[in-house]
Each structure stands twice: as structure tokens, then as C-alpha cells.
């Protein structure tokens, strides 16, 4: 994951964001920021307030309290020029079944033409956009005939047709097969590396978040309970790496904070008798589950000690 150097001013900034429905606080003091070219993943269990947060930042929902600034503008008062600089990929969009793919993208693209600038021509050329999302061979099909995965690719194309500076992605790869997901990840890297697009995404696919995100926010109970790179969050839960191996047909497991050193000593002692060596470090899924469980149990979200796993035959 690239090491991005934050600019002085964030592209997206949220301070003490609150959202109340009746007597229920869905968001309770959410604060975070995102910088140009950064991918920020917003994670959390169902009902944590992820979609509400994104809808407020998109300007589709009015917050109860707090501050939100996107591209220097309060989303609640964003005009058409501001909207032309943002892109949205919703969880699902089932309109326009009778349109053909190319015709729809050409039509939507015309709305962005007046908002071109010397530094950023809008919209994308349709052929370029079709290639980016993998729909070139389906360009003349009616949208109603597309498969679920192809329809999801079109959702992404609709979200980026105007060459957005900030892109909101809500569960963007739902319905993607592994190949489509890989191509989507390549697209995200292209948008951030070559277009300097800032991306805020929600996903339940933690492996995807770990691959894509420069920074991860974990939202639980309407609050941000963790904010950092995947590596920083993994270190904060203080879980040892697991070393697994076989010897003489037996399976072994050992937990250690120095897995490389342990593996070296293992080979020094047993040499070629060691087979199937595997080192499993704490990943984002482990970190996420630990931090959400801490929050739900009422425990502090600061560093917590874990019981070590003793070496044993499985």
C-alpha cells in the first residue's frame, strides 16, 4: 500500500458528526478526515452508521449536529458545481433497464461537460470508461439483459463518469466474481495513483479493505473506535503471529511476537524434518473482530493483553 503524504488541508473533514432519529443516536460524535489520493475504508457491523455517514457526506441526508466539509463545501449546501466533483456508487441501482449501456453513459456524461476545468476534463470518454470497468463488449446491450456482475460494473461506471475528485463507494463489489473484483481493485489504484481521487468506501469484505485502504476507520455504536493503517491497527491489538508446521506427520502451532526468528531456530534444530511451515500474522479481520468485541463488551479500545497460544500437537 502506498505511503501517501497528507496535504495541509484535508479533502474531506468530519468533526463531531451526530445523527439522531427520534431518541436514538445513530452517529454520536464521529470525527475523521481524508486527504487527496487517499483510500479510507469505513468498517463496522450492520447498523453502526456507515451508510448514514456516507449519505451525509454525499449531501443526501441532513445531519443533526456537527461539521462536515467535502472539497471545501458543506455537503448540505453543495451546488451543481460541487456535485460534479463528487461521485457515488450506491449499494444497488436498478433503473434504466431499457437503456443501452453506451447510450446511458453518453447521456449522463453530458451533464458533466459544463464543469470541465483546464486541469480536469469532464466526463471520461465513453470508450475509455467502458474499458476501465470491463464493459466494452457489452456496450450495446440493454441494461436489463446484463448479469448481476455486469450491472454492478455499470454502477461503478455511472459513479465515475464525471471524473470525480471524491468518490463514495458503498459495498462496491457486492455481486462481483473474483476476476471482476481484481479488476475493480486495479481501477481503484488507477483512480488514486493517476487521478488523485480521494475514496471513502464501506465494505464487509475485510480482505478487500486490507488490500485497498491506506487507512481504516472502525465504526461501532455510532463512534469511531479505531483509526489507522491496517498495520497500525494490527499492532494495537498486540496479538502474536501463529507459526504452524508439521514434523514426522504431527501438526504443531506456536504463537510468538518474533515469527521469523522462531522459524529460523526451528530449522536450525530440525532441518529437513520441518514441512508445511506457515506464518500467519494478525490481519485486518482479526483486528476488526477484536476491536468490535472490545467495544460491545464495554472494554477500553486501548491496547489489551492476550493469552499466548502454547506449542501443542493438534
Plain-language structure description:
- Helix 4 (126-133) packs across helix 5 (148-160).
- The chain folds into two domains: 12-231, P-loop containing nucleotide triphosphate hydrolases (Rossmann fold, 3-Layer(aba) Sandwich), CATH 3.40.50.300; 233-313, no CATH class.
- It has 314 residues and is α/β, with parallel strands linked by helices.
- A hairpin with a 2-residue loop joins strand 1 and strand 2 (24-34).
- The protein has helices at 50-58, 80-84, 101-110, 126-133, 148-160, 178-194, 206-212, 230-236, 259-270, 284-297; strands at residues 12-21, 24-34, 39-43, 65-70, 86-89, 166-170, 198-202, 215-220, 223-228, 241-247, 250-256, 274-280, 312-313.
- 35% of the residues are buried.
- The strands form three sheets. A six-stranded mixed sheet has the order 5-6-7-3-8-9, with helices on both faces. Strands 12-10-11-13 form a four-stranded antiparallel sheet, covered by helices on one side. A three-stranded antiparallel sheet has the order 2-1-4, with helices on one face.
Relevant terms:
single chain; 314 residues; 6-stranded mixed β-sheet; 4-stranded antiparallel β-sheet; 10 helices; 13 strands; 32% helix; ATP-binding; ATP binding; ABC_transporter_ATP-binding; nucleotide-binding
Concise description?
By secondary structure, the protein is of the alpha/beta class. The protein contains 10 helices and 13 strands.
Break the fold down into its secondary structure elements and pairings.
Layout: E1 12-21, E2 24-34, E3 39-43, H1 50-58, E4 65-70, H2 80-84, E5 86-89, H3 101-110, H4 126-133, H5 148-160, E6 166-170, H6 178-194, E7 198-202, H7 206-212, E8 215-220, E9 223-228, H8 230-236, E10 241-247, E11 250-256, H9 259-270, E12 274-280, H10 284-297, E13 312-313
Parallel strand pairs: 3-7, 3-8, 5-6, 6-7
Antiparallel strand pairs: 1-2, 1-4, 8-9, 10-11, 10-12, 11-13
